[in-house]
Amino acid sequence: MLRTVLASALLALALPGGVSAEPQPQPTYGPELEGFAYPFPVERFLFTSQRQPLQMAYLDVRPATPNGRTAVLLHGKNFCAATWESQIRALSAAGYRVIAPDQIGFCKSSKPAAYQFTFRQLAENTHALLAKLGIERPVLVGHSTGGMLAAHYALLYPKAVEQLVLVNPIGLEDWAAKGVPPTSVEHWYERELKVTAESIRAYETATYYAGQWEPRYEPWVTMLAGLNGGPGKEAVAWDSALLYDMIVTEPVVYRFPQIAVPTLLMIGQKDNTAIGKDLAPPEVRGRLGNYPELGKAAAQAIPGARLVEFPALGHAPQMSDPEGFNAALIKGMSAP
Which GO-annotated molecular functions does the record name (predicted)? Predict the structure, then answer.
């Protein structure tokens, strides 16, 4: 599936002899990413939350030679379980059982029309999934918004976490306190309805990949654009708006000193992510998303935290340099 998407994207760029091709139609997917194939079998966790039946999609990849440990990978706002593919393969080869869920409101999971999205609720959903699978003390690896979720999970269930790994987490600063103006859910919704493959690609190039675009990133643009432009785009956009509101109104930075599990921070130094930064005045905007400073401050605030820095990488180091990142991740997870 991913090779097909990539081939189509490349074909759209040029024809033999340098003649431009007609733009290829953008694939569209259902509200639960129907039609987009994941690299591993997708399983479903059926449960009731806030008086409604929901389903959480997840990947459960078991190693050929188990080491007795489990890694739970928590995706970011514009990511899915499938975007962890390289890490799943590397961790599985190293002996880890790997669980990668799609959170409620994201990707292949339910898109409820009325749901109080909080990090506590998403942590409780994840804890229920792990209880169902019989997993008691996993290593939590959270990226971006998944890093905020992982931090909340560790605060809620400190005895149920072996180790916490935060990969360019957002929430390292309080954007509202620094001057980002308040934004209504309706405004987030209208913005999400306007998302296109072009806008996704431009944002990811500047933020995720430190200005360096490569064709291998294209399937993930297609995934998001197809979800946001599909037959359930209003439901997708509404849940996305609710999730943005959750992110900006529940800063976790103030609770870092309370984290009581071993923590590894993995920070791409060219990251500049700050939700709502484009809505802030220019004098405020320039002070936001300084990850070289934010990573060091977080490492000082979290008791005993270790910091690994990637000087040339942006918000998604696990995707920009999967081999280097995976080696650092497995080394960091093996350390006492």
Answer: monoacylglycerol lipase activity; phosphatidylcholine lysophospholipase activity
